[in-house]
Amino acid sequence: MHAVRQHMADGDLASAEAALRTLPAPLRGDPEAEFLRGILAEKRHRPAEAIEHARASLTAHEHPDAVALLARACRRAGHTEEALAACDRLDALKPDAATVLRAGTLEEAGRFDEAKAVLAPIVDKHAAEGTPLPMPVQVEWSKLLVQSKAYDEAIALIDETLDGLEPKADDLRRAQLHLKAKAADRAKRYDLAFESASAANDIGRLEFDPELYTTQVSALIENWSKEAMAGFPISSCDSELPVFIAGMPRSGTSLIDQIIDAHPQAAGVGELSSIEKFAYELSAAWDPGRGEGKQFGKYDAWRWTRQARDYVREIEGLAPDGAQRVVNKALGNNKLVGLLARLFPKTRIIHAIRDPRDVAISCFMGGFNNRLHPWTTRLDWASHAWQQSRRMMDHWKDSLDVQILDVHYERLVAQPEVEMPRIIDFLGLPWDSRCERFYESKRTVRTLSYDQVNRPLYSSSSGRHANYASHIRGIEFPPYDPWAGD
Predict the structure, then answer these.
(1) Which residues pair with 327 in a beta bridge?
(2) 325 near 260, Cβ under 8 Å?
(3) Closest C-alpha among 164, 163, 141 to residue 154
């Protein structure tokens, strides 16, 4: 176990996983081994796996670190009540940690007043004593100050936090700088917002090669051409339950998901990764030299059907009873539309589209995982990624028989009385006025938009790039007109 912990401390997750796989058989189900597997899953942004391993660890021993892992993973997965229940368990073992976790869980669920009530006694106590807040409390209180529109106070506290961070605390430093960018943006201090986001994106930036990305998209389009797909396996799954939202992040995907989820006969399940994992397996097995129908090796039509039916069972278990359409808005869906069409011949795809300048600014300011999406750390890279996403979606529209609906963010916020019924009609469902009140949902939305989709529709984010005109000057963006064709 020591070797696993050392690899994790060094940031070498692959070696840590390898060390766990080579543990002697008697130790593989050990509570500490399960806990470490859960930590690895958490670091790899796989909350469902982290929950599974945390629970396995806790069956043998109620250890505070495992309970805290369970709380964090449930919070990350959007399972708010389960996360709060884990906080209750942690309160008996490590009360200070439980308090901060509880406040963070409530804040991310949009329950800001409850979160403030949890932390306010601690904040008031330190204010009365003239002592600084503990670092974890500073981090969560800063978020709540932003939600309370106390932007200057939030920025001052964030700066205090940044000054107190250890040099190697890159993840927390990046997160705090992005929070500072959010506070400054909402305070209309746009130069400070851009400066803060730039500093955040400079931390651990990975290189993104636009030319290589174009080549990769071209290869995808060639491999999944209409002619090539005619020889691919096709599932016999005839379910109309699966619906997918595709497109660039920050294009209104969470808003569309929330509108659909408000319909009594539909549900949103966030960003599921099961189809993406299947796509990775197919990619590893791919060999075009095998000939038509055999390019994927053992992954024949039977296996595609089994995957499709497994997915339908998965979303049936996550959606409420009676749901006839269930939406998955995973970020990689734009690359998988061809696969989705072969797995679910009766699926429906919603293509979320937004001005590339607004997408670039929102991604740059937002604090994505830059290891998975390195293009979000530079505006010109984001512009290029937008163009290639549009190119992929145009290819799918030209090559597939499944229904694909374009939804422009600008039109949705300007004419909700037209666009919302159009979305619901596309799903083959009757209109329901509850979709207009999507913001009344008690659902936890695990996305960068979590504090935006739980309030009434607003249009101030449309044309957001104008606030950063001096910073995007000279960057080439693709032409875009959401009203073209009217």
Answers:
(1) 243, 268
(2) yes
(3) 141
pLDDT tens digits for range 164-183: 999 889 989 999 999 999 99
**CA–CA gap between residue 436 and residue 263 (Å, rounded):** 9
Match 């090669």 to its residue by tokens: 209
Strand partners, 245: 350
252 sits in the region (left: phi over 0; alpha: psi -120 to 50; else beta) called left
**317: three-class secondary structure by DSSP:** helix
Structure tokens at 183: 């506070």
Q: Domain spans of the chain?
A: 1-93, 149-204, 210-472
Per-residue pLDDT tens over the stretch 221-273: 999 999 999 999 999 999 999 999 999 999 999 999 999 999 999 999 988 88
Q: Which amino acid is at 97?
A: A
Q: At what angle do helices 31-43 and 64-77 cross, to 10 degrees?
A: 30
Cα 62 from chain centre: 30
3-state secondary structure of 351: strand
What are the phi and psi torsion angles at 10 (to 5°)? -80, -5
pLDDT of residue 91: 95
Radius of gyration of the chain, Cα coordinates, nearest whole angstrom: 23
- What pLDDT sits at residue 443? 65
- Whole-number Å distance between alpha carbons of 247 and 392: 9
The 10 Å Cβ neighbour count of residue 325 is: 23
Per-residue pLDDT band for 427 (boundaries 50, 70, 90) equals: very high
Say if residues 433 and 485 touch (Cβ distance below 8 Å). Answer: no
How many other CB atoms sit within 10 Å of the CB of residue 86?
29
- DSSP, res 439: G
Q: What is the mean pLDDT of residues 185-205?
A: 96
Return the CATH number of 1-93, one of 3.40.1160.10, 3.30.460.40, 3.40.50.2300, 1.25.40.10.
1.25.40.10
By C-alpha distance, which of 351, 357, 347, 319 is closest to 252? 351
Q: What is the pLDDT of residues 284-327, one digit of tens each?
A: 999 988 877 788 999 999 999 999 999 999 999 989 999 999 99
Tell me the helices (H) and strands (E) count for the chain, helix number first: 23, 5
The domain over range 210-472 is classified in CATH as 3.40.50.300: yes
What tokens does 198 get? 């730039």
Measured CA to CA in angstroms, residue 60 lies from 56, 63, 85, 410 at distances of 8, 9, 19, 53
Q: If DSSP codes are grouped into helix, strand and coil, which group holds residue 100?
A: helix
**Amino acid, res. 100:** V
For residues 30 and 368, what is the distance between their CA atoms, to the nearest angstrom? 34
Nearest one of 284, 377, 267 to 322, comparing CA atoms = 267
Stronger pLDDT, 377 or 454, i.e. the higher one = 377
